[in-house]
Amino acid sequence: MAYFAAQIANEFIRRGNEEGNPCNPQKVLKLVYLAHQLNLSFFGSPLIREKVEAGRYGPIISSLYSKFLQMRIPLIKDEMDVPSGATDLDEKASDVIRVIWTKYGHLSGVQLGILTHKPGDAWDTVRRGNAIGLSSPIIPDSFIRNDFEERMAVKANG
After folding, report:
1. Residue by residue, what is the 3-state secondary structure of 94-152?
2. In a 3-state reduction of DSSP, which class is residue 140?
3. How many CB atoms sit inside 10 A of residue 94's CB?
4. Cα(150)–Cα(7) distance, integer angstroms
5. What is the pLDDT of residues 147-156, one digit of tens each?
6. If DSSP codes are grouped into helix, strand and coil, which group holds residue 60?
7. pLDDT at res. 140
8. Mind listing the pLDDT tens digit for each residue in 13-28?
9. Which pTM was predicted?
10. Parallel, antiparallel or unpaired: strands 53-55 and 58-60
11. CB contact at 8 A, 33 and 59
């Protein structure tokens, strides 16, 4: 099941606040992206309803990005409003969020940005227009999934 990006963001915001490690907007965006990527790879389905775009400075989810621009705050203390009709996260989604937070929650937004902005990755491919037939800034879920799988293959072989 796919959820609103704000629902996933709220889980990371809540975890950060509970642990005394509040998130800045960049960190939340990257954690949501990584959770979406993990879900695509392990379960073959998107975690978020929104599409990921190749923004100027990395992969973004427009609905979150625009809210963060409006907030203009360095650290996010309050959870975001979630559209009506949102369903509670299932156990699978909660597990994905937990895994991503455990692995990456200690990193800064800048460090997460480095992880998601590598030459040749999905963001770079779409941003630079290297993908044949792509005319929009949307990063296809198949590209996002492939990035995760390639990163895991490199770790296994390296």
Report:
1. HHHHHHHHHHHCCCCHHHHHHHHCCCCCHHHHHHCCCCCCCCCCECCHHHHHHHHHHHH
2. coil
3. 12
4. 28
5. 877 766 655 5
6. strand
7. 94
8. 999 999 999 999 999 9
9. 0.90
10. antiparallel
11. yes
